[in-house]
Design brief:
By secondary structure, the protein is mainly α. It is built from 16 helices and no strands. The longest helix is centred in the middle third of the chain and has 50 residues, at 157-206.
Amino acid sequence: MKLWLKYLIGVALGILGAILLPFGSAQAESTLNFIVDIVLRFGRYPLIPLLFFSVATSCFMLRDEKLLVKTSIWTISIILISSLGLTLLGLLSSLIVRLPRIPIAIEKVSEIPSLNWQDLFRKLFPYSGFQALTEGAYLLPVFAFAVLAGAGAVSDKNTTKPAVTLFDSLSKLCYIVMSLFTELLAIGVVAIMCRWTLNFIFVIKAKVYLPLILMLFADMIIVVFIVYPIILRFVCHDLHPYRVIYASICSFIISFFSGDTNLTLVLNIRHGKESLGIKRRVNAFTYPLFAIFGRGGAALVQAAAFILILRSYSSLSISFIDTLWILAISFILSFALAQIPMGGPFIALTIMCQIYGRGFEAGYLLLKDVAPIMCSFAAGIDVFTAMVGSYIVGVKTQMIEHQELKKFI
């Protein structure tokens, strides 16, 4: 049975569970949250070992073949361009489609989250390199450590050959373990989908957020089924661009309904290799970078949501300067979400309100209830960006062996 079919069955069972099972009590809700938390931990469990050994091996191979710079330039360029393009789409869609105002309710401001840029750099270089391997949410330190280890090994191949051979073997072993975890994760999709359905039902009952949800859904459809296939057609000269979308089904299910970009990474790596045929040296390098920095979907949601907040508080038109400010801040903050794999767009929206000031400091509270659904759309768009972007890098570096559609997992 195809892996995506197993995940779809899990989705169907999760929806049925949310509708048929009694989740009205606090105890039942607490139990479901506990199960989902275990599933998320289970899915992330093989990630750090796989990431370290695979990235180190990948960087050794890429530098040895003089492809590391080319691969890095293509990956970083796609991340920057896609993030800017998605931010523009979110901004334009919210300016063109005038969503109904959200009723302003008096609610006490709770603890406000913050993003500390200095902290991000401190964690990037901890006092010990081995501390990087203990960070479960912030993947950049372990990625950087692995890049240094792999690229540095090229300088003296005779001395480092045993270490490179060991890393290569451990990378393949971790991949086998990860593949088993992705198969079993199909069972965990039931609990993830159940909780998401309950959140969605709660939000829909309020009705006030439905126009925002529909607009974000329309944006996602435009990006996934129109923009990205056109890009693949002209950039990669691919006659069947929807193969990449098809290969993203499993990753999209996990990403959209869990909202966890780190959890999605293991599925991206597996589908990139086994479905799209991207060679391991590129596959293991590009997908982590997209998971860490490729958060254009979050930027899209932030820009659209902030426009809605401004219009809910005031009937005045939004100035050109404010529009540029929203575009710039949404774009910049998306890169600060590297250490926040879940709920990042809402945290960034909170910070945007604080920076903007002018009486809008508590504006984020208007969208507090719909935050999980907003984050779902952000994560869903980001996973397609990662799949399409990595495929383009694979084609441009000639590190891809195209698979027949029937061989897709």
